[in-house]
């Protein structure tokens, strides 16, 4: 499993890419590859949990331009070994 933490700098430029990004996340969720995803309530960033291999995780990040959008930065990429699922 992998955690991806995003940081938002307040720039509204990322919002143009958000609808397509959320469609990708919905498809990945339906395929069982995204467990949880969503923004922090203060809109300072977001947390996403992926249940994929390291190679798939890298492909997912590379394929979605939202992760490189103005106003979005990847604050953390972390492999995670949860005790409970």
Automatic annotation (TrEMBL):
All residue ranges annotated as the YCII-related domain in the record: 12-72
Organism superkingdom: Bacteria
SUPFAM superfamilies named in the record: Dimeric alpha+beta barrel
Signal peptide, first to last residue: none
Entry's family note: Belongs to the YciI family.
Protein name: YCII-related domain-containing protein
Organism: Dactylosporangium siamense
Lineage: Bacteria, Bacillati, Actinomycetota, Actinomycetes, Micromonosporales
């Amino acid at each position: 499993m992998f955690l991806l933490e995003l940081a938002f700098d307040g720039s509204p430029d990322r919002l143009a890419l958000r609808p397509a990004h959320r469609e990708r996340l919905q498809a990945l969720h339906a395929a069982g590859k995204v467990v949880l995803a969503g923004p922090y309530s203060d809109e300072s960033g977001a947390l996403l949990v992926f249940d994929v291999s390291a190679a798939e995780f890298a492909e997912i990040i590379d394929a979605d331009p939202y992760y490189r959008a103005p106003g979005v930065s990847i604050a953390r990429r972390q492999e995670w070994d949860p005790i409970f699922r």
